[in-house]
Amino acid sequence: MPWGGTYKVTADIGFIAGFELDNTEGYGTLDDPLAALYDTGVGVDITEDVQEIAINRGRSTQLDEFSAGTCTIVLYDQSRKYDPVNTASPYYDPLLGTSGVTIRRTIKVFYDSTQIFTGRITDIDVEFQPTSTPISRSTVTIEAADDFVLLANARLEEYTPSAELGGARISTLLALPEVNYTDATDLDSGTITLDTEPIPDQTVLLDYLQDIAATEQGYLFMKGDGTLRFSNRLETILVTTPFFFSDDGTGDADYETLSVMYGQEQLYNRVVCTPIDSVNPGIADDATSQAAYGVSALSLSGLLCSDADAQVMADYLLPLYKDPQYRFDSVSLSFAGSSVSVLTQQTIMALDLGSVIRVKKSFAVGTPNSLTQTLSLEGINHTITPTAHNITFRTAVRDIAYYWTLDDPTLGQLSTDNAVS
């Protein structure tokens, strides 16, 4: 089904081949739309056959590890060109006797020029409806996952690292010969000096990288364009002007639904942070909260830092979780029709995991008459069809500090506790 120019899906299916004069299989025809070729890094444009796209990236809460981003694409395939066993497919190579529609090929999903998902095919399912007749409606469902899957499949040999910050440690590990990770990275330096504890043989690379992120309390995820991102702890706290979602027209865009969480799910009034081989782990308690709600402990172990840094982490985490909070848990909106301008859509689509937003909820009765929270994006879901694009942002309340701003009535006051110079 044609989608117009806003969305595009490309897949590295078929085979790389050079132009061959007089070849009748597509290789000898310039610009043949069904030529069994793809340009590395560009891919075959399969958008016109796409029926639906579902993308899920991120994590549920800020205390979870980020998981591999996934994408499900449903294709209309009446001609069976995406069927791996169809030898008449333009993506089948008769010389090799293999299909170019296969696992581990790259899939990219674009909104305008912004890549919102990059991953590799993990599964291909073919369905015929009804199955009782030879002539039936055929669809192919492609499942893909981002390169966290590759990092999860990599194993480290025994290695003794030097004392270094998180960004340097990640770079070192990715360059090891048993890993040889050559895709794009965007790594902050980190703020915590990691220990020199030997890494055991056959350690799962992704597990160790997530230990680094837990030690930093930063973010580790694959961006929409396939770049491996590692952020400092402060990177998610110091912001300028976040995008503002509202329900009354006063923000940058109106949302459609808002989910609120208020309960004991993230109530922790005792935090214990324990490094590897710790002698004196970091412990922080809030006696007032414990007296009111009982003791609820958050325990983080296996951290790659000193006991002193673990104490700093415990002191940092306790204020975030010691009291129950009225938390905006998720916010959803739709691009159907003209409800959101194209320019605003582009700004929203540029938001990624770790981005900071503001969300306002207005109330028809009661006091206060509105509530605004500053949140970090912990997860992003897209459901896209030719007629609508529904987005859900999973969020978490963050302890946000804003940069000092000259002449700003709030952020320009050095005495306020929400601005940093």
Task: Write a compact overview of the structure shown.
The protein contains six helices and 29 strands.
Keywords:
mainly beta; 6 helices; 421 residues; globular
What does this structure look like?
The radius of gyration is 25 Å and the shape is globular. It is mainly beta and 421 residues long. Strands 1, 2, 3, 4, 7, 8, 9, 18, 19, 20, 24, 25, 26 and 27 form a 14-stranded mixed beta sheet that branches. The longest helix has 15 residues, at 307-321. It is built from six helices and 29 strands. Helices cover 14% and strands 37% of the residues. Helix 2 (166-174) packs antiparallel against helix 3. The chain has helices at 148-153, 166-174, 205-216, 287-293, 307-321, 342-349; strands spanning 7-11, 44-45, 50-58, 67-76, 92-93, 98-99, 106-111, 114-129, 137-145, 155-156, 164-165, 185-187, 193-194, 203-204, 219-222, 228-231, 238-239, 243-246, 253-254, 257-261, 270-275, 282-285, 297-303, 327-334, 356-362, 370-384, 389-397, 401-403, 419-420.
